[in-house]
Amino acid sequence: MSDLPYRPCAGVMLLNRDGRVFVGQRMDTTIEAWQMPQGGIDPGEDALTAAIRELGEETGVAPDKVELIAEAPGDFTYDLPPELIGKAWKGKWRGQTQRWFLFRFLGEDADVDIDTSHREFRAWRWIDPDDLPRLIVPFKRALYESVLAAFRPQLAASDGR
């Protein structure tokens, strides 16, 4: 299955006023899998537009409730575990190549509504950014560590570290 392409994707690290990051608990898994908003880039769509669209589709957060802080300097890639290749995403992809964006959340918790028409999360919460790698599914752990490393300067600036 290594001949399958990677799915182009955009991801959002959404940072609240307290320097905590949004995570949602996925609905489509029996394990406790939390992740940041992310999703496919549509044909003809740029990564930033996709990131803002995905954020709205998955969290209900409107574009005027966020401000862009940073874009990761490059793309990150992960492979699906062998048991999911050929099953996830209708068998079209072997994993994802992701472009990540760090946004500041300007709204209030009441502006988050995961009960969207594209519902992907059963629950959500704000967490310390350093807790991300232990909450994500194991096959995405290295990717999340890379995203954290890419945004570490901005995260440190936001919480005084």
UniProtKB/TrEMBL annotation:
Sequence ranges assigned to domain Nudix hydrolase in this UniProt record: 5-149
Motif (Nudix box): 39-60
Cofactors named for this entry: Mn(2+); Mg(2+); a divalent metal cation
InterPro entries: Nudix_hydrolase, NUDIX_hydrolase-like_dom_sf, NUDIX_hydrolase_CS, NUDIX_hydrolase_dom, RppH
Family annotation (Gene3D superfamilies): Nucleoside Triphosphate Pyrophosphohydrolase
Entry GO MF terms: hydrolase activity
Broad class of enzyme this protein falls into: hydrolase
Keywords on record: Hydrolase
NCBIfam families: PRK00714.1-5 (NF001938)
Protein name: RNA pyrophosphohydrolase
Phylogenetic lineage: Bacteria, Pseudomonadati, Pseudomonadota, Alphaproteobacteria, Sphingomonadales
